[in-house]
Request: fold
Amino acid sequence: MNKADSSAAVADEVEQSLYAKRKKIYPREVHGLFAWLRAAGVFILLGLYYIIPWLQWDDRQMVLFDLPARKFYIFGLVFWPQDFFYLTLMLVAAALSLFFFTALAGRLWCGYACPQTVWTEVFLWVERKIEGGRPQQMKLDKQPLNLRKFRIKATKHFIWIAFSLWTGLTFVGYFSPIRELAVDFIHWQTGPWETFWIFFYAFATYGNAGWLREQVCTYMCPYARFQSAMIDKDTLIISYDAARGEPRGSRKKNVDPREQGLGDCIDCTICVQVCPTGIDIRDGLQYQCIGCAACIDACDSVMEQMGYPKGLVRYTTENTLEGKKTHLLRPRIILYAFILASVIFGAAYSIYSRVPLAMDVIRDRNTLFRETDDGLVENVYNLKIMNMDDNHHTYSLSVTGLEGAELLMDDFEIEVDSGEVIELPVRVSVDPDTLDSRSATLRFNLIATDSDDLYASEEARFIGPMPVR
Reply:
């Protein structure tokens, strides 16, 4: 073959790999420690997802993001758009957690907590219950369409769709009171936006977990592409011990593999059959691997049946496989852990000490000051007060920090409804003889009459004439 023909063959191979029709993967069911951990993660995460919207807290939904009212109820707290800072902290903590756990043990998020993995596990479980295990599913798909096949497939997809609709309804239930939403949905009385998002999220769940599955992880998720930037040779990864397993080959149980010049791998391909993305872990670390550890459970069960030591496929590091010393506790891990702990502690303390009251003081810049008929000097301020509590409150306002300062306003009882922002013009007068300089600092203090915990204080500048020396 000449050079031109070789180049053409390579181009054809690349084109076929890019546009080849997807081959359905039939993951084999596996049991073991990691399978149990994965099932526990699915049960806990989905349990929280589906149950939390139905729980009540002080006669209201415990977690509700009420966008029209601009209120975000999370347990006993009420957040407002002005509290966007806390969302920023949460996103920073999530990013740092991803960096930390990836640097420590690879794709733990993908294998145990990613929504794509969690919902796919449920869909696979339904599929096995209705169609049977891997051999039965493959045999069923090869059969021509008949009444039995149609009934089995229709049943599976009906359950998938019902579960997806329940998922979509629950998702919208975080933004619209779910008890009323469920009743309206049953009677087909939901609003246009609620209906759209219920069906959109249901369609996404049905498509991603039922049909696309590993395609999402392989082609759509960017995490697989940049994970290499967060791992090193000391990161725990799922790997095949080639030094122990090779050369691979089948053999009888009572045969010593060393006498036949074989390694411990019996080439049963069970590790490939259980992989949800269809890769062969024996080919080395691959970006398609989601770190679910199903191959570890599968290989350990085979090693146990053969009477060999477990761990042919295991969590290990590249340095360990190369016979070098591994350092799990290294500067990168310590730095990530320290920053992550600092952000979480800071966010928790900030939320704990948060006061649902905000006040901004803006001095009238049109006039620096004015002198009254009584010989006093006045400054005018505009106060913006926001009650971020869930209840109506009455506040009292005072001014401190400047000797002889007197607060002048129309009504000393300030009433603010929940979520309301009011603008309050006030005047402060001072005897000019008490001023030591042209500019002085004073402080406005706002406190609720029914709760000493609702307190806000802001500094402002008081401008007067140049003192006479």
The CA atoms of residues 103 and 231 lie 5 Å apart. The domain at 357-463 is CATH 2.60.40.10 (Immunoglobulin-like). The chain is about 45% helix and 20% strand. The first strand starts at residue 63 and ends at 66.
